[in-house]
Specification:
Strands 5-4-7-6 form a four-stranded antiparallel β-sheet, sandwiched between helices. Strands 1-2 form a two-stranded antiparallel ribbon. A two-stranded antiparallel sheet has the order 3-8. The chain is of the alpha+beta class and about 300 residues long. A hairpin with a 2-residue loop joins strand 1 and strand 2 (about 35). The protein contains eleven helices and eight strands. Helix 5 crosses helix 11, helix 6 (about 115-125) crosses helix 10 (about 260-275) and helix 10 packs across helix 11. It is about 55% helix and about 15% strand. It is flat.
Length: about 300
């Protein structure tokens, strides 16, 4: 047991890298093409809420990454087969590019004229009750359980009895306790790696990530242990109806009003929706001004 614990601590030290930004960190490399963590996060954020919920049921962002890899591989094959040179495909690519630029211009230029920063800020200050939220925590966990589970971890060492589950989670909890006692600090990335190796539920695929949750959303024993932790701290063994857990607190969000930066775009989108006629009028006026200042030739005989 002692040598195993020491080995785990050494592994944590060896795996500690210099701090990198999400733009620098690589989430996956597909045939030499890198996808950064920032790009993955942006793609995840663009998913429709219902689709994101579906992915969260089967492993969250890591499950989505698998889908993204498959998509990337097919895109690479399309490029190899020169599909980008096909006239129809090239036209669609140009249309998609124009659509993104058009929507971005409307949102960032016209939108900010119709709902300027000063008005967005004023709304936030005058309606504080609309942005109140409960205390929440962001946590990860590793579950060991004798209950039948799909084997989703990389070791496939799922416990078959209650005793095996308890002994397994005790060893994992001890590893983290020893790692946290010295100069080393257990990081979310390191806990995530352990969860992918040893977790026995669907969250193992996403490093045990449970996302953000408030009080009343988890079973009482789990909730009590999670909210009692400090950020960066791991729990002792926690028993629930699902089995035995080790919990890692990744972040904490206090109760109170959400920061302005987090809700600014939400407020602006609401304002623009309410002022849709103003947005359309501004777009028409601007396009008319640009048209009068531009050279435009229409060839009716060609269509």
């Amino acid at each position: 047991m002692k040598s195993a614990c020491i080995g785990f601590v050494i592994a944590l030290a060896a795996g500690t890298a210099l701090t990198q930004t999400p733009e620098q960190k690589v989430a996956v490399t597909v045939n030499g093409e890198n996808v950064s963590v920032a790009e993955l996060d942006a793609a995840w954020g663009r998913l429709a809420p219902e689709m994101r919920k579906d992915y969260e049921k089967i492993g969250g962002k890591l499950a989505y990454l698998e889908s993204l890899i498959g998509r990337k591989l097919l895109v690479q094959e399309a490029i190899k087969n020169n599909l980008a040179q096909d006239p129809g495909v090239a036209a669609n690519l140009r249309a998609a590019r124009e659509e993104v630029l058009f929507e971005s211009y409307v949102a960032k230029v016209i939108g900010e004229r119709i709902a300027p920063e000063s008005e967005v800020r004023e709304y936030y200050e005058k309606h504080p009750h609309e942005f109140l939220r409960q205390e929440a925590v962001k946590a990860r966990h590793i579950l060991a359980t004798p209950s039948p589970q799909q084997v989703v971890n990389s070791t496939g060492d799922n416990a078959e009895t209650d005793g095996e589950a308890l002994e397994k989670i005790k060893r994992i909890a001890q590893h983290f306790r020893i790692a946290g006692m010295g100069d080393l600090e257990v990081t979310a990335e390191q806990f995530s790696q352990m969860a992918m190796q040893y977790g026995e539920d669907g969250s193992a695929r996403s490093g045990g990530d449970l996302g953000w949750f408030m009080r009343g959303q988890m079973v009482p024993e789990f909730e009590e242990a999670a909210f009692a932790l400090e950020v960066g701290e791991t729990s002792a063994v926690v028993q629930t109806q699902f089995g035995y857990h080790v919990i890692y607190l990744e972040d904490r969000r206090p109760a109170g009003r959400a920061p302005y930066e987090e809700v600014r775009e939400q407020i602006r989108e609401r304002m623009l929706s309410e002022r849709a006629q103003q947005v359309i009028a501004a777009m028409n006026q601007l396009s008319g001004d640009l048209r009068r200042a531009s050279q435009i030739s229409i060839y009716r005989e060609n269509f």
